[in-house]
Amino acid sequence: MKSLIDLFWFKYSQLQYAVHSGEKVLISILEREIDPVLRAIYDEKAETVVDARQQFQFILDLLTKEADDVSSVLRQRDALQGLADRYFSAGSDAVAGKGWVPAAPPLAVLKGRVDEGFLNEAILDCLPDRIAVITPDYRYLYTNPVNAARLEERPMDLVGRHVVEFVGIQRFEQRVKPNLDKCFSGELVDYTFAKETENRTIIVRCRMTPCMSSTGKIIGAILVLQEIADRRRSIAA
């Protein structure tokens, strides 16, 4: 159950970015990929209380995210009703056959609920700092336009590409990978480094924060890079 839910949210995040970017071909591809995953989550028969609770919570989370889409709300309402009928109706095989009685689905106040595990890309796109989300296999899941411009790429063209393409193998092995691994293990990482750009020294502060799915699993690292001129050179001058 958990792996299906994590897969859905991964693809959902990519779909949202494709929609914001107006990438019609990618939207079509992702929609075809995400529908079977969503159906598999709906159809999965939970074998434990934990699985059933995750199933209900997933639908509540999706309801929250799609609250402005009436058709989506109706679909999730029907899905909730289907789960309730499956697990709570009298004589249900899920109850009688598996030897457990599912707890009631969690109650949630949907209006105004904020899921801190996911990013509001519309906001991130407008921020002046370089921002990216890197997956545990060291590939770009998201980058805002500022970071993409620094790498001389379009934001959508970075999705799925390995970080080593842009930092080089030596810097990746010595600095980037160790810090990403710390972040993937749950640590907050904050460090600075210097680089030469157009005959001037730039100090870059890099902050890494674990990116969590709605189920609490770390699905990536949120990178925020701030660039400032090297004050040491200014003072020396």
Q: Average pLDDT value?
A: 74
* Overall number of structural domains: 2
Q: How does the major sheet shape up?
A: 5 strands, antiparallel
Q: Describe the global form.
A: elongated
Q: N-to-C SSE series? A: HHHHHHEEHHHHEEEH
Write out the strand line-up for the largest beta sheet, numbering strands in chain order. Answer: 2-1-5-4-3
Compute the separation of the termini in Å: 61 Å
CATH class of the largest domain: Alpha Beta
The structure class reads alpha+beta
Q: Name the CATH architecture of the largest domain.
A: 2-Layer Sandwich
CATH superfamily of the largest domain: PAS domain
Given as residue ranges, the uncertain stretches (5+ residues, pLDDT < 50) are 90-118, 232-237
Percent in helix: 40-55%
**Number of separate helices:** 11
Strand content: 15-25%
- Can you count the beta strands? 5
Gyration radius, rounded: 22 Å
User: At the third CATH level, what is the topology name of the largest domain?
Assistant: Beta-Lactamase
Can you describe this structure?
- With 237 residues, the chain is of the alpha+beta class.
- The chain has two domains: 2-96, no CATH class; 121-236, PAS domain (Beta-Lactamase, 2-Layer Sandwich).
- The chain is 51% helix and 18% strand.
- The protein has helices spanning 2-21, 24-43, 49-65, 70-88, 93-96, 121-124, 145-150, 155-158, 164-167, 169-184, 231-236; strands spanning 130-134, 140-143, 189-197, 200-212, 218-229.
- The protein has a five-stranded antiparallel β-sheet, sandwiched between helices.
- Helix 1 runs antiparallel to helix 2 and helix 3 runs antiparallel to helix 4.
- The longest helix has 20 residues, at 2-21.
- It is elongated.
